[in-house]
């Protein structure tokens, strides 16, 4: 009996309306000391309030399963994207109730505002949708759903607890990957900022002869076939297939720097997943190498349907290391694993020209055997700082240092170009689009 009472008591909460009623009763009793003509009115109001409280308790507690709630979530969450979750709630009360819902989201979000208010008509069902944006990969623990219900009297609230603890993994941005995949299939990449690169000549892969249609290049007219058919016929060429595209991800401490809540490593992982998927859709072979103070994961280039899932599973587990990149080990791995000339996209970060000079000997060796594309990041916070007007001497020093670092990034691009190494200097949030743009440009210009 005591346990049952404790269970009911722990789920009963007093509302503001009850405290207002009690304040009215106290005021009437105080006034009654000075004005005897009030008589029994204070006591009458008090007992009416007690009866309303008992009635409210009876309304809310007469059905032990008067509310049902359930969270609907995807099997996995996409890092750095807005993920849709929903709460289904059903009322089994024969009257309209006011409902407050708390969803215990994982601690990684540091959110205390996942609180929803709504009203439910008798026996009504409702679905409430909200979004969560994770910024770190890993496992996220969701807690219970707690529902607070008020009757039309509104004096007390009853809490319903629904145990729905679950662990959801947060993977690299597969939602972003799917977006670019759909755009690539429908040939609408320009809608998300992917440039259409003009082709500089044809690949060597001839497909077939077809009828001329408006817009075809006159230079592709097959005059022999035209003479035979009596109408213009053109040669149709297709992009070269099965070219090897390797994404190399630097996991050293240089990639730990955060921008908009996301580390440079996570930006590189998201871009790698999207770029690999686009390469596979273009019928190239995609591979992966991760490196820190030692070689991490190595996935040989392939174009099988399961390749993107293999890459996704490896990227999910990658973490930042806190030592320098072992470029000698990277060079040895590339020479051992990649047997033919390939496009090697190296995601890394250089904050100074001296940092580049330490790695330049190995970059030049890699560039002798493969087409090397170095992708590194602008420090957008320093750019903003250098653009602000200086108010005093201290700000002049800060602005000068910021401009110096920003200028070093441009010098790094020139230094790489001097040795025939292509590069992409990009803001973190534009990394995926710029990396795909560069890949399509290289493919169109047949540089591999």
Automatic annotation (TrEMBL):
<feature type="domain" description="DUF58">
    <location>
        <begin position="209"/>
        <end position="352"/>
    </location>
</feature>
<protein>
    <submittedName>
        <fullName>DUF58 domain-containing protein</fullName>
    </submittedName>
</protein>
<feature type="transmembrane region" description="Helical">
    <location>
        <begin position="12"/>
        <end position="38"/>
    </location>
</feature>
<keyword id="KW-1133">Transmembrane helix</keyword>
<dbReference type="Pfam" id="PF01882">
    <property type="entry name" value="DUF58"/>
</dbReference>
<feature type="transmembrane region" description="Helical">
    <location>
        <begin position="44"/>
        <end position="61"/>
    </location>
</feature>
<keyword id="KW-0812">Transmembrane</keyword>
<keyword id="KW-0472">Membrane</keyword>
<dbReference type="InterPro" id="IPR002881">
    <property type="entry name" value="DUF58"/>
</dbReference>
């Amino acid at each position: 009996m005591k346990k049952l009472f404790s269970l009911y008591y722990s789920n009963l909460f007093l509302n503001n309306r009850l405290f207002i009623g009690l304040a009215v009763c106290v005021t009437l009793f105080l006034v009654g000391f000075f004005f005897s003509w009030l008589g029994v009115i204070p006591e009458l109001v008090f007992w009416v309030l007690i009866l309303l409280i008992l009635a409210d308790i009876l309304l809310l507690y007469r059905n032990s399963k008067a509310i049902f709630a359930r969270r609907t979530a995807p099997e996995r969450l996409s890092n750095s994207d807005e993920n849709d979750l929903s709460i289904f709630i059903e009322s089994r009360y024969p009257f309209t109730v006011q409902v407050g819902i708390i969803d215990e989201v994982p601690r990684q979000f540091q959110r205390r505002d996942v609180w929803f208010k709504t009203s439910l008509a008798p026996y009504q069902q409702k679905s409430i949708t909200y979004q969560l944006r994770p910024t770190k990969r890993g496992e996220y623990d969701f807690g219970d759903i707690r529902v607070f219900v008020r009757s039309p009297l509104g004096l007390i609230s009853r809490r319903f607890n629904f145990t729905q603890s679950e662990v959801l993994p947060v993977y690299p941005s597969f939602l972003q990957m799917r977006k670019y995949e759909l755009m690539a299939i429908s040939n609408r990449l320009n809608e998300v900022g992917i440039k259409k690169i003009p082709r500089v000549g044809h690949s060597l892969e001839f497909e077939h002869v077809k009828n001329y249609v408006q817009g075809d290049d006159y230079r592709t007219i097959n005059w022999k076939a035209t003479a035979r058919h009596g109408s213009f016929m053109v040669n149709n060429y297709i992009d070269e297939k099965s070219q090897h595209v390797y994404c190399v991800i630097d996991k050293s401490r240089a990639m730990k720097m955060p921008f908009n809540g996301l580390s440079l490593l996570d930006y590189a992982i998201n871009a790698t997943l999207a770029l690999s998927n686009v390469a596979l859709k273009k019928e190239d072979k995609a591979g992966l190498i991760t490196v820190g103070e030692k070689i991490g994961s190595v996935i040989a280039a392939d174009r099988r349907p399961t390749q993107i899932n293999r890459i996704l599973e490896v990227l999910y587990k990658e973490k930042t290391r806190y030592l320098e990149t072992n470029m000698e080990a990277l060079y040895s791995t590339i020479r051992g694993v990649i047997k033919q000339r390939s496009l090697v996209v190296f995601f890394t970060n250089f904050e100074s020209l001296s940092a580049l000079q330490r790695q330049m000997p190995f970059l030049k060796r890699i560039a002798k055997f493969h087409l090397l594309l170095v992708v590194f990041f602008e420090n957008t916070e320093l750019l903003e700082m250098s653009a602000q007007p200086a108010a005093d001497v201290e700000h002049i020093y800060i602005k000068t240092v910021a401009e110096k670092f920003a200028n070093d990034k441009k010098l790094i691009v020139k230094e790489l170009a001097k040795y025939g190494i292509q590069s992409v200097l990009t803001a973190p949030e534009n990394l995926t689009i710029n990396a795909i743009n560069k890949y399509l440009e290289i493919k169109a210009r047949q540089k591999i």
